[in-house]
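Quick question about two entries, pasted in order.
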Amino acid sequence: MAEEYIQIEAGASQEYFGPLSRYIEDDDVTDIDYNGHEVWLTDSSNTRYIARGLDLSDEFVEQFTRRVSNDVSKPFHKMSPVLEAETDTLRITIVHESVCQGMRCFCIRKSLPSVRLTEENALSSGYASKEMLEFLKNCIRSRMNVVFAGNPGAGKTECAKFFSQYIPAHDRVITIEDNPEWHYRKLNPGKDCVEMKIGKSMDYTDAIKTCLRLNPAWMVLSEARSTEVRYLLEGFSTGVRGITTLHTDDVRKIPDRVVNMIGQDVAADRIENDVYSFIDVGVLIKRKVSDETGSGKVRRYIDEICLFSREGKKNKVTMIAEDGMMTGNDIPDCMMKKFNDAGIFHPFGFTGEPVKIPMNRVEGKCANITGFLKVDESGYVAETGREYRVHDRMGSDMESDAVSKDESEKAMEEVRQEMLRFMEKVGKELDSGSETGATYCGRQAYI
């Protein structure tokens, strides 16, 4: 159900939300839940606790309900016991006492235009290992289709929002959601984005079909819930890349969930084959209470990562991470090709200090490349117009003067092979005193 929109004027929070306004204005509070007796709060560190000293009067609850009901022009009584509304950053749900054992209840969920998950706090909190983060960032950079799975409240959208930041800047992104949670444009200023919202005049299926006419490079669906996932797969089959979330407790169940959502209209084996063909990565986020002391402290973390592939008419799931740890399983050749095509030769990233690789002159038909390349976790090979460049975010130390794309590709392939040979040599010798001046500090690095 799509909520009706409420426009609350700046500075009117105190009048509209009364004693709840301080929590509305506190960016650290993510959820405000009233059970008819107490107000429970959830904060950005995933701690849940009672708002001590706050006793909502029946008069306030009635006034608040009436205010929301009037603003969205919706009835609220025994025959219409659920009232829903939204603002730019809030989603409000109020449930009538006739279906809540005589107690009126409500929930206010906040979705701010920010990403609470960062690489630093992910590592420090045990949310994910460095290898997991680098691998998933590289999946996005390689334009793979990713499904973020988990139970309700696990933090699927927050995780997906974090990794969506690594979508290449020049790719057009179209978001489809019923509640404003992604805030892609505000989180990624300057990127090409169209934000679509479903409602009475457009459901998820219509939105996906419309999206495909708007020249998307990426389609971001807030949640796959029902038969619309069929059109999502069809979109992926055309080459549009995508991110979505769905409810399940194991990445290996994603194909079955998709088949069940689509129903009986299409043969199950055909849909299952499409899942393995057009969905590349599954990520499971788990949520659990980290102690039994009653503090309400909740831990969220990436529990599973898998790759879906279909080769030789056989469907395969390759577990990359399980029980919160890397499995050490090899990446299937067909998936490794996707990484390599994006210029990523070590998908798990670099585990030590940056490596400086001096390059000898490489002669090609149209390339004369010299200098040295700084290789770190942000480096990759990218095409910039008619010129091919090996660079990181800080700039490029090497480039080709290629006059044609075909010739420059050949020249750059020679460079890649030279770099691979160099890394193998440095990795074996571990010699920081040689004339190359390179030090190999980890078992993997970008090339």
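Here is the second entry:
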Amino acid sequence: MKFWTPLFASGILFTLFGCGTPKLAAPPKKNAIQYRVDPELGKLPLRFAAAEEALTATTADGKKLCFQPKKKIAVFQDCKINLPEEITLSDDGVYGAGKRTLQLLRVLVQNPEGRHFGRLILIDPGHGDHALGAKGKFLLEKEINLSLANAIATTLCERGFVARLSRSDDRFLSLEERVQMAKDYDVFISVHHNGSESPKSYGLETYAPDTPRKQQAESILLAFLVQRNMVRATKEFDRGVKTARFYVLEHTTIPAILIEAGFVTNPEEERKLNDGIRRQKIADAVADALISFYQTTNAKEKKL
């Protein structure tokens, strides 16, 4: 037994019988993954090159667009763009994108010089839940604030911004919570409708922060652009650009404005506030103002 044990242990037995050294079977070859884009992404006017670590695309005039899987960032002409959703990558190598990201990319490719693309905009519908805001004969401010904010956010996304609502339903948010949310955004827009003891008060107005601080100038410029556009679009009375020490304006650290889009307490204006056509005019006015804002000011690095 002492003789045979080392023969087995060392493989000598195989040599003695002329079998040679045993060979291990080679592992089966894995099929190489063919990386590609899904049909919806493929509809964009881009030439794609897909690999394991990244997805790149080229426009018809040779501009490069780069993505990373499972990230919300694209790079276009050396500029980082925030995406609404992650770029997905399936186990079988298919890259995909959500509807909002596809929408942004489509606008981006069509308007490659846009400096506003991917800017993060927080639209803050004032009031909510037990905080009713101004009350008219038929309307509550908290409800029409949300309707107008929804229209603004939708329009901004269609124009290439990444817009979010601080609240998307009838909930209460403290002023501190709203300010805290704004820290992750590039611009803050609070949406309100006015109220007055006098039913004769009417018109549109836009507020910027009153206390001198960093980016107060940008806030005043944005307030001017929004106010000008709203008055032009609706042909309604111009109450002007004003400054105020509203908490959400004074405590944000980004350009911030507050819109008062008409008086709930004025019977004539109250009838207009639920008009979808008027609401869209204001949404377009805000979007145009933000595009002008980024064309006018020095573009800051986007928040990532």
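Reply: The CA atoms of residues 33 and 93 lie 6 Å apart. The chain has ten helices and 14 strands. Hope that helps.
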